[in-house]
């Protein structure tokens, strides 16, 4: 349930008011930007394995990760250790998600790098235009000395970030998303080994996962050429750019869904447009939340459900979702 004060704030923002901080914040130093460059490169250059913890409110979830680099590229296994078992294998941008309880496998080609500790595009783009990047202090995480970097948003449209970057390798060991003094979510390694030898079988499915009774669903993505998609966003918030337009067969959806992906260089937002099937339940418009920094906004337009999802504040989600329109 969203409080009246938040609703009032959203209405106020919707008519164009933004808290601009750009004049108060200087440009980021070259040394601070160099830490981000090092962090963006690190996952492609190092082997690592360990356990990381995700915190959001009262929700805590631990995962085990093994990451190997070789001449063929990157190979990775992430296994969620709490709740419903989930194991994701990645070879470069090819993903396979195994659900042992239901014996289902979902495959997909990754369209954007966004998995801890690999959270920055490479090379990264306009982050300094949207965040003031500041070197803060040194701290130790999982027995590794880290440089703490603060990313302070230059306006009210995005969250702040704290990054703990391994001094030796540049690998991200901890990250926190914040709004003011409130910590919204965190990822942090509880145990980590960097640059150790990793056997190839550790990043391959176990024997029981290769049995014939597993059902495989291939989640297909078709990149749409510029101008082909009839849905557009007419007023992107400051700092956000369109990354890609796609058509996808998402899980449990009877029809293909149009997908527009946006980013400000760090935060990502996705807009999904799908026709409302005759006889299906009428979508419920409004705001929905999940764990942590992800917010969701749903509206109905001309017989279509428009879902905007992203790791940005509610007012930003609404600005983007309300700007979606269909070309004649």
UniProtKB/TrEMBL annotation:
Protein name stated in the entry: Transcriptional regulator
GO molecular function, one term: antisigma factor binding
Record-linked Gene3D superfamilies: Lipoprotein localisation LolA/LolB/LppX, MucB/RseB, C-terminal domain
Assigned keywords, A-Z: Periplasm, Signal
Superkingdom classification of source: Bacteria
Single biological process term from Gene Ontology: regulation of polysaccharide biosynthetic process
Taxonomic lineage from the root: Bacteria, Pseudomonadati, Pseudomonadota, Betaproteobacteria, Nitrosomonadales
Family statement drawn from the similarity comment of this UniProt entry: Belongs to the RseB family.
UniProt-annotated location(s): Periplasm
Residue span, MucB/RseB C-terminal domain: 227-324
UniProt-listed Pfam families: MucB_RseB, MucB_RseB_C
Signal sequence region: 1-22
Gene Ontology terms: cellular component: outer membrane-bounded periplasmic space
Annotated organism of origin: Nitrosomonas supralitoralis
Domain MucB/RseB N-terminal residue range list: 31-205
InterPro entries linked: MucB/RseB_C (IPR033436), MucB/RseB_C_sf (IPR038484), MucB/RseB_N (IPR033434), MucB_RseB (IPR005588)
């Amino acid at each position: 349930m969203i409080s009246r004060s938040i609703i009032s704030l959203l209405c106020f923002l919707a008519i164009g008011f933004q808290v601009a901080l750009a004049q108060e914040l200087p440009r980021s130093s070259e040394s601070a930007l160099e830490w981000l460059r090092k962090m963006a490169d690190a996952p492609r250059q190092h082997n690592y394995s360990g356990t990381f913890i995700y915190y959001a409110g009262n929700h805590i979830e631990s995962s085990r990760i093994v990451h190997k680099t070789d001449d063929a590229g990157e190979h990775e296994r992430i296994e969620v250790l709490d709740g419903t078992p989930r194991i994701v294998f990645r070879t470069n941008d090819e993903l396979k998600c195994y659900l042992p309880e239901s014996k289902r496998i979902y495959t997909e080609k990754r369209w954007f790098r966004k998995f801890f500790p690999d959270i920055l595009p490479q090379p990264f783009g306009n982050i300094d235009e949207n965040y003031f990047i500041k070197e803060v202090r040194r701290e130790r995480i999982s027995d590794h000395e880290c440089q703490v970097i603060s990313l302070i948003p230059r306006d009210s449209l995005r969250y702040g970030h704290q990054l703990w970057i391994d001094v030796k390798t540049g690998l991200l060991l901890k990250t926190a998303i914040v709004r003011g003094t409130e910590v919204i979510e965190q990822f942090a390694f509880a145990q980590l080994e960097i640059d150790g030898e990793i056997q190839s079988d550790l990043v391959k499915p176990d024997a029981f996962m290769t049995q014939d009774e597993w059902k495989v669903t291939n989640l297909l993505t078709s990149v749409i050429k510029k101008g082909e998609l009839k849905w557009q966003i007419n007023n992107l918030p400051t700092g956000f750019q369109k990354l890609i337009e796609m058509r996808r067969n998402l899980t449990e959806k009877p029809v293909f869904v149009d997908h527009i992906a946006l980013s400000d260089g760090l935060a990502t937002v996705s807009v999904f447009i799908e026709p409302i099937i005759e006889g299906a339940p009428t979508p419920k418009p409004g705001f929905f939340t999940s764990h942590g920094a992800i917010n969701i906004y749903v509206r109905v337009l001309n017989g279509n459900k428009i879902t905007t999802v992203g790791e940005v504040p509610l007012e930003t989600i609404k600005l983007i979702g309300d700007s979606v329109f269909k070309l004649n």
